[in-house]
Fold this sequence. Notes:
Low-confidence stretches: 359-365
Number of helices: 10
Number of domains: 2
CATH class of the largest domain: Alpha Beta
Number of strands: 17
CATH topology of the largest domain: Dihydrodipicolinate Reductase, domain 2
Amino acid sequence: MQKRLNVGIIGCGNISSIYIENLKNYDYVNLIALSDLQVEKARQQANKYHVPNVFTPEELLKQKDIDIVLNLTTPDAHFTVSKQIIASKKHVYVEKPLTIEREDAKILMNLAKKNNIRIGCAPDTFLGGAIQTARELIENGAIGKPVAAHAFMLCHGHESWHPDPHFYYKHGGGPLFDMGPYYLTALIHLIGPIRKVAAMSNITFPERTITSNPKFGETIQVETPTHINGVLEFENGAIGSLVTSFDIWYTNLPCIEIYGTEGTMLVPDPNGYNGAIQIRKKHESEWENQPITFGYTANSRGIGVSDMAHAILQGDKHRANEEVGFHVLDVMHSILESAKKGSHIELQSTCEKTKLMYQSKILTE
């Protein structure tokens, strides 16, 4: 019988539903407990998805049969809760970002290393079929050597639909910290770690009015940049740009384009697991759709937890790991610092490009 590690969740807000639904079906994990500061939230989710145990967060951390704790709290609580999980001698997988501050992330990583504990960090969307296929195509030379990339995340913010959008306009929020992890993690997986950044930023609308319920009509004073244009120099010499914005009404720009010596690749939304990949090689007149050759093309949130459990059982390195999470955090802070100082910033961190999920269908057929 396949060995599995027991998982408990702290934080039963909106994002918890897809994690719970998926973790009950993934290999290598066995979801056995839910918890939330509002215990009734955890109980409702447990009843809906037939999870056997409901605890307060403190009670959950005392359960000796739980191996991994999935931290789905709000970003401002990621550090405190993850630190408590590590102190309880349990592995932690945390939603993005790893922490808000770099120094807090370093504390977590040092504690985990000292206690022989694993840290996993969302997003795991780069483990989905689309980004995995794009990575393999690049490695197989489909567009030659990558020399440049553009990435765009442009919208008008969350106050029109989110029930409590205040945080998205405070320190640790904004379009870069909210959505940047998806784009940066994908770019790092596809091209490699980043060596240097330069950026400019702006707050176009310093006051926002909420038009969603239940806080309709409340105003938000914006405290973090809402339009950020960053330039990225990758360690392999490629030059990229990342534009994230809550100030844009409409756009026709692609999510990600990667330019190689032999052609161009269109990469789909890195906040998803599927999507159309197109390649147009030099001297060709048409774009060609590429078949997705890897699995996990549905909404597969939680596959990073399963992959971490498998790596623990095998003594291997998990893919959505703390090194990648910290490098992404470092890049985001460096982009904001560059915009504030008006000069480029040399990154102090790096990470390994993670290996592909498994052999593609093309190689195994």
